[in-house]
Every structure is written in C-alpha cells, then in structure tokens.
C-alpha cells in the first residue's frame, strides 16, 4: 500500500510541476459597466507572471496573447520572478507596444523570491518579505513606461479608450502594506476634477485583494476591480477549491469574476489565478495558469 501511495504522490507531483503549471489558458469574461451606447472595450488582464529568464514557453505564450487584439492592458503585479528577469519580460511584452495600459506592483516586483515554507502558506498569509534581495524595480518601471503604460501605484489617471473616458485608480502592494488609501482617494478627487461622479466608468487596480482595499475602492465608486496575488489558491482540492488566498479574501473568491459589496455599493471583482508561480514552488494542481480577456460593455438603457 505504501508503494501505491508513493506512486500516486509522484504522479501528482509530476502532473502539477510538468504539465498543469505550463497549461496556460485564457479566461473570457464580459461585464456591463460602460455608459449606454458606448463601444465595447477588450481588457487583457495579466497578473503574477513571475517570469524567470529561462521560461521560454511562458514568454512565447504571453507574446501570443497579442493575437487577442486587446484595446487595453491591466497588469496587477508580480511580473518579475528572478533578479535578472527584466530582459525576458521585455521580450514577452514587446508585441504590446502601442496598446495602452496601466500597472501596479506586487511584492515580487520589489524583492527577489526566496525559499518559502509551503506548510505555513497553507494556513496563514505569507509574511511580507522586506529584508530580501532587491529586484530591478527601476528596470521594470522603465519597461512599462516604454510600452506607454501608466503607473497606478497609489495613483489615478483618466484614459480615453474606444471613445469612453475611464478613471483608473490603483494601489501599491497591500501585501507589503504599501497601499496608501488616503493618497488613492485624493488622487481620484484630483483626476475627476469638476466632472460629475456619475458617467465615466471607474476601474480599480490592486495586486493583493485584501478586504480593506476592496472596500475602499468600492466606496470610491469602482465599477470593476482587477486583482491578482492569490494564484487561485495554486494547489486546490477538487470539490473544495482553494485552501488559501494568501490574504484575508474569502477562499470562494480566490479566482474568477465575482461581485464585491460594501456599504450598499457593488463592484465586479476579477481575481486572476495568475500566469506563473514562484521558482521555488513550481506546481499547480486543479488551478491552471491564466490570462483574462474582460470585455467591458455598455449598460442596458433602463426605463423607469
């Protein structure tokens, strides 16, 4: 019996590390958040790429996402997975030059990964790594800037896409406690200016979907919030789902399009299962990697 159990364990490990973590796919979602009569907008949501220089299969797959012809790109952090990843990420994203976008950072965009304790990860959020090896954040920001993407780390910006004016607002990494929700609120007021609160869609962007951040973005009027960090649980149990979200987000919301509610307001919440994993935990089970193409559509005209 022991031999049989060991064989099953080896098989699961091989499947998780060799097949499923490289079984990249695209999830398609559609939500009605734009003004009536507006043209649809295809948003490509990329998260948790955790790219290492040798991951050529992942690089080529990301390049292939350009065939989806997105109108906009949203990156929700943890793009880097190694201290020397920026050149590889440059190749992966180069075909998106000229496609407008926004980004925020995750902890792995500040610190290089190091060996975790996988057992503690299952029972509580990982401790913020503020003493690790610094990674090339400046090079990452320069890459994003060269693509024309806007920095939303505790900031807001108004962008015109397909004729619609959208207010994007985002936070720096909540897992490292770098989110400054007071700055975010001030930036929304500044960017909105004298324009009425109704009308333009508001899109929230954050790396780690902690409740405090989701509540704050919802209170600010976000119609949809994009987040990552959870890896969808990374190792899930069929019929049960994610064992952890590495945050205080409920496990049932570890991945997918859901609705977040706070103080009478509602926002769509799209949590990405991510494209990669840490190089020190290269497994996925019942939780394949993904990019998401979210089509923002016009709201139906209501009649009183």
Provide a quick synopsis of the model.
This protein has a single domain (2-298), classed as Metallo-dependent phosphatases (Purple Acid Phosphatase, chain A, domain 2, 4-Layer Sandwich), CATH 3.60.21. Helices cover 24% and strands 26% of the residues. It has helices at residues 2-19, 56-64, 86-93, 118-123, 137-147, 181-192, 211-219, and strands spanning 25-34, 41-46, 72-76, 101-104, 149-151, 155-161, 164-170, 201-205, 224-227, 236-237, 241-242, 256-262, 265-271, 290-298.
Can you offer a commentary on this structure?
- This protein is of the alpha/beta class and 304 residues long.
- It has a single domain, classed as 4-Layer Sandwich (Purple Acid Phosphatase, chain A, domain 2).
- Helices cover 24% and strands 26% of the residues.
- It is built from seven helices and 14 strands.
- It has a six-stranded mixed β-sheet with strand order 1-14-2-3-4-5, covered by helices on one side. A six-stranded mixed β-sheet has the order 6-7-8-9-13-12. Strands 10-11 form a two-stranded antiparallel ribbon.
- Helix 6 (181-192) links the parallel strand 7 and strand 8 (201-205).
- The radius of gyration is 19 Å and the shape is globular.
From the structure above, extract its key features.
single chain; 304 residues; alpha/beta; Purple Acid Phosphatase, chain A, domain 2; 6-stranded mixed beta sheet; 24% helix; 26% strand; globular; disordered N terminus
């Amino acid at each position: 019996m022991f031999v049989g159990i060991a064989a099953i364990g080896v098989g699961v490990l091989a499947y998780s590390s060799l097949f499923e973590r490289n079984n990249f796919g695209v999830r398609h979602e559609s939500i009605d958040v734009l003004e009536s009569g507006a043209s649809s907008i295809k948003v490509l949501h990329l998260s948790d790429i955790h790219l290492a220089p040798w991951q050529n299969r992942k690089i080529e797959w990301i390049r292939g996402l350009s065939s989806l012809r997105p109108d906009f790109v949203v990156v929700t952090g943890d793009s880097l997975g190694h201290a020397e990843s920026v050149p590889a990420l440059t190749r992966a994203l180069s075909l998106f030059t000229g496609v407008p976008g926004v980004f925020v950072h995750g902890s792995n965009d500040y610190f290089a990964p190091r060996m975790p304790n996988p057992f503690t990860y299952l029972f509580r959020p990982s401790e913020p790594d503020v003493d690790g090896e610094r990674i090339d954040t400046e090079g990452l920001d320069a890459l994003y800037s060269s693509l024309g993407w806007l920095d939303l780390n505790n900031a807001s910006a108004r962008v015109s896409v397909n004729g619609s004016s959208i207010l994007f607002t985002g936070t720096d990494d909540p897992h490292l406690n770098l989110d400054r929700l007071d700055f975010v609120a001030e930036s929304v007021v500044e960017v909105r200016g004298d324009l009425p609160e109704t009308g333009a869609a508001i899109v929230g962007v954050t790396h780690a979907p902690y409740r405090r951040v989701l509540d704050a973005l919802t209170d600010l009027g976000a119609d949809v919030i994009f987040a990552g960090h959870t890896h969808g649980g990374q190792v899930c149990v069929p019929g049960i789902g994610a064992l952890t979200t590495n945050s205080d987000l409920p496990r049932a919301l570890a991945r997918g399009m859901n609705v977040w509610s706070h103080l009478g307001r509602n926002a769509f919440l799209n949590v990405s299962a991510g494209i990669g994993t840490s190089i020190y935990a290269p497994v996925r089970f019942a939780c394949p990697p993904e990019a998401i193409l979210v089509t923002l559509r016009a709201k139906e005209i209501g009649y009183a």
